[in-house]
Design brief:
Length: 563
């Protein structure tokens, strides 16, 4: 066969196709994942160096001898190694490929080695230029890859002419290889980059699909388990996961029984029945994920031998101190392979549900604590107040029986309101009614020594606030304030609007408040904590004291909630 550029082009294209076939096969593996993004970290750069050094060497080994040199395609590996890995990786790939080519010997050995080093540096400098200008996406442009490789081959041809000797034979060699190498290397680099782009887009599609599913599940399942990890809530969550993932079946268990099951096999995997699956019991006992794909690891339903489910993923749900509180299980039928994305998604869902269960238990414990504190406050207030009130009624009975009857009525109203207080919120109007029953008794007790002024505009009386908010503050103003005075005591209760908030003031004329690091007064402290728990840390109780003049206690709540 006559040696001319066109006759050389076809075998060089065959060589390029073989390299691309290997590249395509490798693109299906995890080895190619670091190449799908701009490699700026050393683990990624290491992978980039290894892959493109191998392609550089393979491009040399598959070449064809031509006069003094070899028609080959190492420029693909050298240029792309630099373009994706940066100058350091490009130089390293160029040196590796160049040393390998030099070791093969021949008149073109030195020139060819310098060619490959120059091509690696060319790609690296292009990488640096594009990164500094924020054009990261351009790194993955197939046209850019092809163009840079074309320039790299042109540089190669000039180096060959400048270094290789004798010049006449070097000129003949360059004349033969110029066209085939320009075409094969440029087209090969562009197609190699296209393979990388396809792999990158596939990863992004999978990531987007994963993110969309995860967000949809998180949005729909948000708060479902806050009210308890029970059969009803688990069924709701299982339905959401089943709808979003499209798996064959979804199950949720606690440590002993099935709480929910939806999908294939629902006729015999019944909620409320004990766990019989050895895989589930093993996952609970060892706190580890169990995966049976039905192929490498066999799966067999523990209830019905001919069940259509063929693979299973069991993921523990973890509570406090890494203690397993149950499992979530995803199944696929025997006719369908278990998707990798669903396996990853399943593990993410397990973390989401575990956090929800923990948050729910925390909220329940917080609610129980608040209720316990409220009961403690009632227990503290009522005996003390009841004792003083009965003494007052006893003293009034002899000289004013009518007043005594009124006080008994006020005491009845106060105690009835105390016993029937709602657990969460009440209206300001109901709070004032409760306070007034208390104050009528105290006014009788401190006859002539206590006056009360209440200034609450009607517009504010429908505002909602935590129950039992005002009475502890009013009692505190009398018990620790005005009752200690030799002069007449005054208590003023008022409300005012501040931006979108409502400020409730309880002010006395004693000015005897003293802050104690260990105890701010159970009543005031509890009111402050309850308001912050309900509305956030920007709300609550503040105290301003002018010694021996006045103490002002201000309660700030949102003014938006009305009844």
């Amino acid at each position: 066969m006559t040696m001319d550029p066109l006759n050389l082009l076809l075998p060089l294209l065959h060589q390029m196709s073989l390299c691309l076939l290997v590249a395509y096969a490798l693109s299906r593996t995890r080895l190619f994942i670091p190449l799908t993004r701009a490699t700026i970290r050393w683990p990624q750069r290491g992978a980039c160096y290894i892959v493109f050094s191998l392609f550089c060497i393979m491009g040399t080994l598959l070449g064809f001898p031509v006069i003094l040199g070899i028609a080959n395609t190492p420029a693909i590996g050298a240029v792309l190694g630099g373009l994706l890995g940066g100058p350091v990786v490009g130089l390293a790939v160029g040196l590796t490929g160049g040393l390998h080519r030099y070791s093969l010997g021949g008149s073109f050995a030195l020139a060819a080695a310098l060619d490959i080093v120059a091509q690696g540096l060319l790609g690296g400098l292009a990488h640096l230029y594009l990164i500094r200008r924020g054009k990261i996406r351009t790194l993955f442009n197939p046209f850019m890859a092809g163009f840079l490789t074309f320039v790299g081959v042109v540089i190669e041809l000039f180096i060959d002419l400048a270094v290789a000797r004798p010049f006449n034979e070097a000129l003949n060699t360059v004349g033969l290889i110029a066209l085939p190498e320009l075409v094969a290397n440029s087209v090969g680099a562009a197609m190699f980059m296209e393979i990388l782009v396809d792999r990158r887009e596939l990863i992004e599609r999978q990531s987007n699909a994963f993110s969309a599913k995860a967000l949809a599940i998180a949005a729909r399942a948000d708060g479902v388990l806050h009210t308890g990890f029970n059969q009803e809530n688990s069924m709701r969550v299982a339905r959401i996961i089943y709808d979003q993932t499209g798996v064959g079946a979804v199950a949720i268990t606690d440590r002993e029984k099935i709480l929910a099951f939806i999908g294939i096999g629902g006729d015999h995997h019944l909620p409320g029945t004990p766990i019989t699956s050895p895989q589930t019991l093993q996952a609970i006992a060892n706190n580890q994920v169990f995966y049976a794909d039905g192929n490498e690891v066999s799966y067999q339903c523990s209830i019905v031998p001919n069940c259509r489910l063929g693979s299973c993923l069991v993921i523990p749900l973890v509570g406090e101190d890494r203690h397993v509180i149950g499992t979530i299980k995803l199944y696929e039928p025997k006719t369908k392979l278990f998707s990798t994305i669903n396996r990853t998604l399943g593990e993410g869902i397990a973390k989401l549900l575990s956090n929800q269960i923990l948050a729910g238990r925390y909220e329940q414990q917080k609610t129980l604590l608040i209720q316990a504190e409220l009961k403690l406050l009632h227990a503290q207030v009522n005996p003390h107040f009841l004792f003083n009130t009965l003494n007052t009624i006893s003293a009034v009975t002899d000289f004013d029986p009518g007043k005594a009857r009124e006080l008994i009525g006020d005491l009845s109203i106060f105690l009835r309101n105390n016993l029937k207080r709602p657990a969460e919120e009440t209206s300001l109007s109901e709070e004032i009614e409760h306070v007034m029953a208390y104050l009528r008794i105290e006014l009788a007790r401190f006859s002539g020594q206590l006056s009360v002024d209440i200034d609450i505009p009607d517009a504010f009386r429908s505002v909602r606030l935590p129950s039992f908010t005002l009475q502890p503050l009013v009692e505190n103003a009398i018990k620790h304030g005005t009752s200690q005075l030799f002069k007449a005591g005054r208590v003023r209760i008022s409300a005012r609007k501040e931006d979108r908030d409502l400020a409730l003031d309880v002010e006395d004329n004693a000015g005897l408040y003293e802050r104690r690091p260990d105890d701010d007064g159970l009543g005031i402290s509890l009111v402050d904590r309850r308001i912050k728990n309900c509305y956030g840390n920007s709300y609550g109780v503040t105290i301003t004291c002018k010694r021996d003049l006045s103490t002002l206690v201000t309660v700030r709540v949102p003014a938006g909630a009305t009844s």
